[in-house]
Amino acid sequence: MNFLQIGQSPKDFEIPPGSLFISDDPRPIKGAKICSPTDGLNPLPLEYREAREFVAAAYPDKDLMTYRNGRRALTRLVMNADRLDRLHYTRKDDDQEAKGVVEDILLSPMLRAAFRKPLPRWVLSGGTTLVRINRQEIGDDDAKIAANVLMSQFKGQVVIQYFGFYAREHHAALIREERLIAGVNTLSELPDKLYDRAILMPKKGRGCTFEDAETLAKYAGHRPDPTRKDNPHNEFIDRAMAA
Asked: CA of 133: how far to CAs of 56, 138, 146, 166, 179, in Å?
């Protein structure tokens, strides 16, 4: 299922069984297992589609020719290696571009250690998994890589409490496959190419900005009507802005 909550109010979702739930400090859920990136992030080697998804998670969202060539090279490399720190690069520019991205990831001591250990099998076993990725503790860059790699490998429902921080263009696939439950503080946190899909999701505003409340009112089919005292448009905005 898809659902988007917009606003500053707490994002306290119902977690469907079998979900991957990513949060700074996830609340305990009976029967769910808790993991962190330090338990292991390495899913290599990968089949083609999984390799594409892994590389999309690891690579920055920039539409540059060198990046596109590097992404293709890295896709090929992760299909033929058992660890990220054991990739065999050629001297070609595309491979060297990919090498630079990988070296940037492995510069982090936490990520370097995590990518040396396999992704725990139980994470992908179909049970509910709570992932603690505390951004304040590990830093924004490491948190983004860890969360995106986990999301790229998980095939079930994904629940992300602070999606605005992690959102990337390739997450449009999660929406298309109807398996994203997410929270954002404002719609402006979403990348442009993701916004168009996200705004069509089932959604609710709680503690929205006025601008976002107006946008939600428009998509809900409400129009301003100053001639009416009981204006559904204004009532909708008031509800969306309320905490």
From this structure: 20, 8, 8, 11, 20
Q: What is the tens place of the pLDDT at every residue in 38-71?
A: 999 999 999 998 999 899 888 876 655 567 889 9
What counts of helices (H) and strands (E) characterise the chain?
11, 7
Q: How far apart are CA 88 and CA 153, in angstroms?
A: 23
Per DSSP, the three-state class of 54 is helix
- Asked if 142 and 120 count as a contact pair (C-beta separation under 8 A), the reply is no
CA distance 219 to 182: 18
As a whole-number percent, the residues of the chain with pLDDT over 90 amount to 76
The pTM of the full predicted model, rounded to 2 decimals, is: 0.90
Q: In the numeric block, which tokens belong to residue 36?
A: 């962190």
List, in order, residues 6 or more apart from 90 with CB less than 8 Å away. Answer: none
pLDDT at 225 over 90: no
